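Thread: "does anyone have the structure for this chain?"

Original post by V.I.:
We have the sequence but no experimental structure in hand. Need at least a predicted one for the grant figures.
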Amino acid sequence: MTNDEHNQLVEDYVREVVGDVIKAGGTFADVMVVMESVLTGTMLLLVKHFKIRPDVVAGLVEAAVGKAVERFKQLEPRLT
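Reply from O.Q.:
Generated one for you, tokens below.
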């Protein structure tokens, strides 16, 4: 998948998952709770389905957050 395809997937996923929260008048804190829930669910899936140790999963999530921050920095100019 290309970067552009990943970025489109991000927009589509967030619109679908978070859209209802926003439409219902949710705050940014509500959106952050959804993000935390997605991370927690993903971590559980990695442990249960792929049998990855919890400490390894925690490291993978930390790395993923770092990558997300880097991607955001690349996308940030588009936001203005």
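V.I.: this helps a lot. Helices lie at 3-23, 28-48, 54-75.
O.Q.: and The radius of gyration is 14 Å.
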